[in-house]
Amino acid sequence: MIQLKASMLVGTLLICAVGSLFIGGTPLEPSAVIHTLWNGGDLDFIINQYRLPRFLLAIGVGAGLGISGALIQGVLRNPLASPDLMGISAGTGFAATLLLVDIPDASLPLLASVAISGGIGAAIVIITIAYKYNPTPARLALIGIAISAFISSGIDFLLIVHPVEINTAMVWLTGSLWGRNWSQMPLIWLSLACLIPCAMYLAWRLDLMGLGEEAATTVGAQPERTRFIALILSVLLASVSVAVCGTISFVGLLSPHLARLLFGHNHKLLLPMSGVIGALLVVTADTLARGIDPPLELPAGVLTSLIGAPYFIFLLQRYQGWK
């Protein structure tokens, strides 16, 4: 049954991804898309240089955010934890905005490295405060929200102080795959190729940590080491994903919850399925963003927020007695 669910989920992702090639400011017939994919032609730019890299990037970004969220929730045993609430997305956004208002045409390697550094820096601040006060999971979520709000105010300040230079930054901050192309492909997919195997290596340790630190220590899971490595991997996955397409909110929160609902708590299945669901969310959001009212294109991050914000309120109500 689980294998059937997984196969159906992957199949749905592939159908949505391929379907995204037909949708946009210029609706295309399947025959035209197939011909262009193999032979090029007048539609080569639309298909091979615009829509094809977009759906491949959407899959990579969604997978990175989904697995990042599953790692954070697993290691902290906190169902409200996510890259957004842990300040990773806000830190990445602040660092990228700081660079873009100063150098609007910053190169991709420079933008990516600065954005990733910002995400790592924000995570270090939050984790340091958390360990200093030894908070409960609910308090940790509040610390993340507070730091994220503080960093977001810094972003707003930069946008107000630099009103002329904000165009590039605004496109990036709203979370959009607009303008992305093959040049971003190596960053996201090479990162996933390196980081996902490391995350899967921690799967059984995360299962043991769910039983409690004492039980995990007894069987040699080394909770402190596992927690540290998992947090580093989560920060890197989220930072790279946000560096590619900006701040697409709530994917890291929703994906693990939906995966847990469908496949249970076994991290060997939970981690990859969180990635698949994250990819499906981003692909769907990006497709709808450019298909709702073409040629107008909405940011994909706006659509994920419309889904994620009500779901977050539902989670707060569900865990209102949880400490």
Automatic annotation (TrEMBL):
Keywords associated with the record: Cell membrane, Membrane, Transmembrane, Transmembrane helix, Transport
Pfam families the record matches = FecCD (PF01032)
Q: Which GO terms describe its molecular function?
A: transmembrane transporter activity
Q: Where are the transmembrane segments?
A: 54-73, 85-104, 110-133, 140-162, 182-204, 228-254, 269-289, 296-316
What Gene3D superfamilies does the record point to? ABC transporter involved in vitamin B12 uptake, BtuC (1.10.3470.10)
What domain of life does the UniProt record list for this protein's source?
Bacteria
Similarity-based family: Belongs to the binding-protein-dependent transport system permease family. FecCD subfamily.
Name of the protein? Iron-dicitrate transporter subunit FecD
Q: Which organism is it from?
A: Vibrio ouci
Cite the source lineage. Answer: Bacteria, Pseudomonadati, Pseudomonadota, Gammaproteobacteria, Vibrionales
Whichever gene encodes this chain, its name is: fecD
